[in-house]
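Hi everyone,

Forwarding the result from last night's run.
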Amino acid sequence: MKKLFKLILNTIPRPLLIRLSYLARPIISLFLKGNTYTDPIDGKSFSKFLPYGYGTQRDNVLSPSTLSLERHRLLWLYLKNETDFFTKPSKVLHFAPEQAFYKRFRKLPHLDYTTTDLNSPLADIKADICNLPFEDNTYDIIFCNHVLEHIPDDTKAMQELYRVLKPNGMAILQIPQELERETTFEDDSITDPKERAAIFGQYDHVRVYGRDYFEKLRSIGFRVNEVDYTNTLPKEKVTKYCLAQDEILPVCYK
C-alpha cells in the first residue's frame, strides 16, 4: 500500500501536490506517522517525507506537517541554534514569505515583521525588489530566499537589499546553487519556459548560480559568511531532519 502511495505521489504535478498536501495534511500526516524523520520546525516525526521537485522529483524532502523543504529546515536550525533571532527584538523584512515560516514568524511578539513581494498574497507590501519603497538602513534582518534566481537584474536587487539593511544587520540570501559550477550561467535569449526549465532548473528561473555568487554579494558591499551548516551537525541529525548535505547558507552582513 505504501509503495502504491509513493507511486501516486511521484506522478502528481508539483503545484497540485503542494495544494493537496496543505489541504490534506492531517490525513497525510496520519498515513506517514512514524519516528524515522523529524521536521525540526514543529517537532513532528514521520515514517518518510513527501517527494518534491520540478522534472525529476527528489524523494523524501517535503515535510507533511509544515510543507518545509531541506532549505527551510536548514535555515530554521541555523536561526534557532546559532542566532538570537527568536529572542532579540528586531525589525525584519521577509521577501516572498514561505508557508513554513510565515505564521510562526508573525506570531513572535519581539519582531516588527514585514513581508513583501510583487505577487505573493502573503505580502504586506507589494513591491519590486529592484525598487523598494523603504528608507535606507531600515531593517535589522532580511530574509530573501530563492528569489534572486527569478530576477533579471539581480545586481540591482542586491543593491536594494544592501541599501535597506541596517549597518551590522543580517541578510540571509539563499539561492539554488550548483557548487561544482565556478561561474554563474545566464542567457537572456532563453525565454521559452520549457527550455528555461531544462537549462536553469525551473521555468521561471533566469540563471544558474555558481560559487561566484558569494563574490558578487561581496562586490555589492556585503560581508559574507559561507556557512556550511550541515557539516557542523551530527550525520544522524542531517539524515533525521532530511537536510541537503553541504548546502551553503549565505549569511550576509552590512
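The chain has two domains: 2-67, 71-253.

Cheers,
N.
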